[in-house]
Amino acid sequence: MIAIKLRRSLNLFSISLLLLFLVVSCNDNSTTPDQDPTLFELLEGETNYSTLASLLTDELIGQLETAELTVFAPTNSAFEAIPSDVLNALTEEQVVEIITFHLASGTFLSANLPEQTDLETVQGELILVQASNGVVINGSANVVDADLVAVNGVIHGINEVLLPSDLRKALGLTNLVDVAEEAGAFETLLGAVDATELRTTLQFLGPFTVFAPNDDAFGALPPGTIEDFTTDQLRNILLYHSIGAVVESTDLEPQQTAPSSNGEELYITLTNGSVIVNGSASVVAADITATNGVIHVIDEVLIPNEFLHIVQIAQKNYDLTTLVDLVVDQDLAETLSGDGPFTVFAPINSAFDEISDVLAGLSDDEVRDVLTYHVVGDLILSGDIPEGSTEIETLLGETITVVNENGTVTVNDAAVITVDLA
Fold it and tell me: Which of 4, 168, 261, 417 is a good FRET partner for 58, with 20 to 30 A between their CA atoms?
């Protein structure tokens, strides 16, 4: 009996040891599936990135093993698009600069990327990331293989090798910002571009035509002018200096308007080879080309309408030169430059041409009456004009008849051809 009980005890003890071993084994992390690989291990194991992996130095491997990074990794075919003589001529320092230009600190999964953002690279420059329709880097490199997750970050495969500034310049692939930097005459403009976070837009998007005020143009502004603007105001001013298309001097007619990137019109004239913008800013150097547009250097900073009174707004417009001259001649500029508000139904030059003989026979007081008959002491936007006919009193004291028929506005039967220059 004692022997039987001893055997049962030993059997129970053996079963207990077996169960304990199974429990311990099930909880032993060493037997779980392998953890996610490091960024380097992931690159090394993906045949589509073998060229990139072969270019890694020991220092870069160390970063990809330990640092938390997002890697925008050019595929093998992206490297194949670079001429072999260019690739083979790169120094080790240049290779490191290129690769670190593809690395950003932190983990950015594609689903978490905003519609447009700048990321600072390990190399030190910014790259532009857009994620509204797929993910695009620097305006042209498409993410073709997203969200390869590693233990210390993520890899996004791209179909183009990104080039930092020095290499772009060395290869003659200069964008608008690169060109301005090389010129050395746009320090204030470039400082404003950085302050308003427009650098990567002007580097990697486009095409744009930029009317670029040089440092002397900014220096001509009253002291403290730039500093007094808010960031949003300064951004609006900079956008007013660009057009979302390439317009070279050879494309110009004697007169044209072009929509600027802030939505307001620019008024451009070409006379005897001289190009003038908004009636006073001269183009002093034209057709400086970049990979994403063209620069025309101007000697004056262009100011959007929100900072101007109505006489200054009219002075920009080559169609309103007769009106402006008459306003100045009749000493009305100071009145119309006041607090207001004013609405001016402004006759264009051709309208004055039609009554030139009549106008020549009028006294100064009569000319002044004609001008004030076109001004209302109130702010009337086109959207404020009701359907039908409305009588409105002018500064002269007489009324004008404004008619709105399905959005077509006439004043005393004269058609309104441009609205809301405010």
Answer: 168
> What per-residue confidence (pLDDT) applies to 51?
96
Element (H, E) at 77: helix 76-80
266 beta partners: 258
Q: Which helix (H) or strand (E) holds 141?
A: strand 141-150
At residue 35, does pLDDT exceed 80?
no
Q: How far apart are CA 402 and CA 389, in angstroms?
A: 6
Which phi and psi (to 5°) does residue 88 adopt? -70, -25
Give the pLDDT confidence of 155-184 residue by residue, as tens digits: 999 999 999 999 999 999 999 999 999 999
Mean pLDDT of 63-79: 98
Contacts of 96 by beta carbon, 8 Å cutoff, 6+ apart: 57, 59, 60
* 3-state secondary structure at position 172: coil
Residues forming beta bridges with residue 145, ordered by sequence position: 157
At CA 56, angle to CA 55 and CA 60, rounded to 5? 155
As a whole number of angstroms, the distance between CA 262 and CA 51 comes to: 43
* All residues at 6 or more sequence positions from 128 whose CB lies less than 8 Å from its CB, including other chains: 116, 117, 118, 137, 138, 139, 200, 201, 203, 204, 205
Cα–chain center distance at 361: 52
CB atoms near residue 256 (< 10 Å): 15
With beta carbons less than 8 A apart as the criterion, state whether 376 and 392 touch: yes
Residues facing residue 212 across a β-bridge: 297
Q: Helix (H, G, I), strand (E, B), or coil: what is residue 57?
A: coil
Q: What are phi and psi of 302, to 5 degrees?
A: -80, 135
Q: Is the pTM of this model over 0.90?
A: no
- Ranking 13-22, 79-88, 198-207 by mean pLDDT, the lowest is 13-22
State the DSSP code for 229. S
